[in-house]
Input
Amino acid sequence: MRKINSKNQYVFDFNGVKDIRENSEKYFEVMRDLGIICFRGAFLDLEKSMDVLSEISRGFNWTPGYVAQDGRKVDWRYTQNYDDRASAFDVDNIEQGLINPWHLEGMYKKHTMHAVGWNMRNFKCDSSVGQTGFVDASVLVEAMPIEMYEFMKRSRLIHYPIFAKKFPDDYKAMLLNFSLGVGKMDEKIWTIDGDTEVSSNAHDAIQNHPTFGYEVLRLCPCCERWGHQHLLFSVDGKKPTDEHNQMFEEVRGWLRSQLLDESMVWYHEYEEGDFVVPDLFIMIHSAKGGFSPGEREFDGFWCFQKNVDYRENLVRELI
Ligand SMILES: [Fe+2]
Output
């Protein structure tokens, strides 16, 4: 059912940015058909990583980085090694051996994450550990039982805030504020995040892919300490009934079952020097442990919608 069915289907030797430009149609088709591309043996530095992403993104709605409030082009990157979690990792106690649970990335309205470049510059462990898992949420739409599909087509969801600066000390007050907003059916709910605020926005449960148009299930399977990250916001534009919430619970159960179904999941086996670019609008993903601290570290480069001047969409500053 998943689109990727063999190990080397989306893996290409890295032959420079010029090769990506000259064979742009081939690489575009791989991204369109499989939702992921990997350049092997790339061993990129920060600058080259941005060059590769800029080149790949020509045919897409996304671009690496975004325009900041003062007009600068900003690259939003991060480094991840999971050393804190890897050292505490106990494969028997974590479902599926995951150190990063299944999630859909960047459900922000303003900075929706459409793609990412993961530059695996340090990978000293075996390729049988430290893998990234992928489930294609456009395939999920096709696989859904029809009654669930029809229900989700009528539904809108809202995601708890994604804190970029500071997780609230009193998260119960945040929950109360959030549930009041949901109760009033506020399409946009603001939450304090450090010295700014972040918004949560109601959105269609099934959205069309911005470049290819096909339908994608935009439901994040992840949980926080208080429960699921995604709530049912409305059905046919109205407040959900108990029956609707029950149906939504069944959809979540079905989604969880898909994440455990080998025919739906693809695990990417890394080699040092891999540059992996998944389409994050469709790819629910996770990370496996099994490696030791210091053995696995990558830089990530978030990609956002093209031609959006985020100055028009100012974050509310707190006074
Ligand atoms: Fe992620």
Observations:
- The two ends are 51 Å apart (CA to CA).
- Residues 312-319 have pLDDT under 50 and may be disordered.
